[in-house]
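Exercise: predict the fold of this chain.
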Amino acid sequence: MTASFATVETASAPPAEAERAPRAANANEMAPTRAEPRSRTDAVGELHGFLEHRSRQWSSVLRLLEQLRLHVQAVEAEREAEHRKLEAAMAAVEQTLRALKAAADPSRENRASGELDKVIENNRVALDQLETVAANLNTNFLVWRSAWLQYAQTFEASRRLRADMESRLHSRA
């Protein structure tokens, strides 16, 4: 019964597959057994392609490094501006705190009823400003750290690219 199954399978094979099978066998017979030496033009073409590819890689890395360097510098400039705002906000909080202590002094007589409310509101505004500056500085730090890490990773990639180029040059020499 097994023999009849094999016979049926061979008989039902499409004729196109049967025609291809001998061609594949003939193609294998005609394949050279040893590799043919490359011509100089093939080697020069390969070298040209390699150098062109590396040139594009270097150009991309250098452009990216320049963009990241400018981004880091811009973030650092923003940080300096925020630090100046922080100094101003700290001074405003200290000033309103002194005014609040003076206005809420229990030993003080002849207090105006609206004076304390005004001082409390000024203190709240100064604290809100301080909170905003602190949040901005925190965000600025996270952006700076991310930009710096990207710059450092790109710089390392450029070092690896350079080392790879040098090793390939030494291996070809």
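Check your answer against the key: DSSP finds four helices and no strands in the chain.
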